[in-house]
Amino acid sequence: MGLRQCCRARLWLLGSGGLVSLLLLAALYGSGPGLQPLVFFSPWRIQNPLYKLDLSWPKFPELFTGQTFCVAVDHIHGLIYVGQRGDHVPKVLVFSEEGYFLQAWNTTTLEMPHGIFALNTANESSVWITDVGTGNYGHTIKQYSPSCKLLQVIGTPGIAGSGTNPIQLDQPAEIFVDDTGDIYIVDGDGGMNNRLFKLTQDLKTLWLRGENGSGTAQFRIPHSVTVDSLGRVWVADRGNQRIQVFDKTTGEWLGSWSNCFVEDGPYSVRLTADEKYMITAQLNINRVLILAAPPIGSIGDCVVVDTIQLAAKVRPHLLDISLKSGAVYVAEIGAQQVQKYVPVE
Ligand SMILES: *[C@@H]1O[C@H](CO)[C@@H](O)[C@H](O)[C@H]1NC(C)=O
Ligand SMILES: *[C@@H]1O[C@H](CO)[C@@H](O)[C@H](O)[C@H]1NC(C)=O
Ligand SMILES: *[C@@H]1O[C@H](CO)[C@@H](O)[C@H](O)[C@H]1NC(C)=O
Hints:
Blueprint: H1 8-29, E1 51-53, E2 67-74, E3 79-85, E4 92-96, E5 101-104, E6 113-121, E7 124-131, E8 140-144, E9 150-154, E10 172-177, E11 183-187, E12 195-199, E13 205-209, E14 211-212, E15 218-219, E16 222-227, E17 232-237, E18 242-247, E19 253-257, E20 270-271, E21 277-282, E22 287-292, E23 304-309, E24 316-321, E25 328-332, E26 337-343
Parallel strand pairs: 14-15
Antiparallel strand pairs: 1-26, 2-3, 3-4, 4-5, 6-7, 7-8, 8-9, 10-11, 11-12, 12-13, 16-17, 17-18, 18-19, 20-21, 21-22, 22-23, 24-25, 25-26
The protein binds 2-acetamido-2-deoxy-beta-D-glucopyranose (NAG) (3 copies).
């Protein structure tokens, strides 16, 4: 259903801007016979958008057969991993950045994928998926090889909990793994936990921020996590309608943005390769927000640079950005598809 409907709103906006300009020109020049060659200029034209929909991605959108909850980009190998839910559907689909379908995972070890992360460093390439299922394999995060071999399970399969030794999870929302192998987890998506924690590669807890609430460094549905090159950990604190930022070494709270999220909380946090922009999805209002990411130091107030308004019921959930091409891939639960938005030159 609903394929390709996302950009109607934006096309309509551009279209109406052009119409206003034409009417203006008609009003200014329309009556006289000696019409000069037109210099097309309209001070009312909306600012050029930063991204445009790539209608050619993927080549065969009918391959999306479930609810597409998440997407991860392996920019080194040019691969796009899509996590979807549903009965009797492959839980992971793999596409190329060009939009060709490459593989469907046959694994039975995934129940309900929520978040997905592609780790790509000089010495490692793996795919990490949070599983919010309540069956025998749920309440866990799984690490797979690029060809779907299960490498590691974090959490106690089938058992929800709050422990840290061993790690227990309840509806883990998302994971980020950095180049050194350190792991950041937000747990979770509405279960008993409201935690952000950092683990070593062998799952020792380095620090934990774990209070339920709306105060400083407390969370209500911490939904997405990413870490920037300046050592800041960004968390989409969805239920509190804000993004909170922490120091990656100490876990110390650095700041919070809430002024951009009055209508709906942020669902995702991802930075562009140059770290100029933070891109986040707002599921309930069908919008992708492009925010100015501040340089080192105080994060200040949130500033909207651009928006991509999607059609009603598209419901953008989580997204990822190719650090090579700059393309933004958005997992849209309502439209049951992932769409690609490319930077406008
Ligand atoms: C999944 O299973 C089908 C049928 O058993 C098989 O043809 C296909 O190659 C498998 N795919 C992968 C990626 O293992
Ligand atoms: C990759 O190798 C480097 C250097 O040996 C090491 O410090 C790092 O932890 C490794 N990364 C991962 C993800 O294992
Ligand atoms: C968190 O706190 C809120 C407000 O007090 C409460 O409604 C909610 O049930 C709490 N969540 C958990 C997981 O304890």
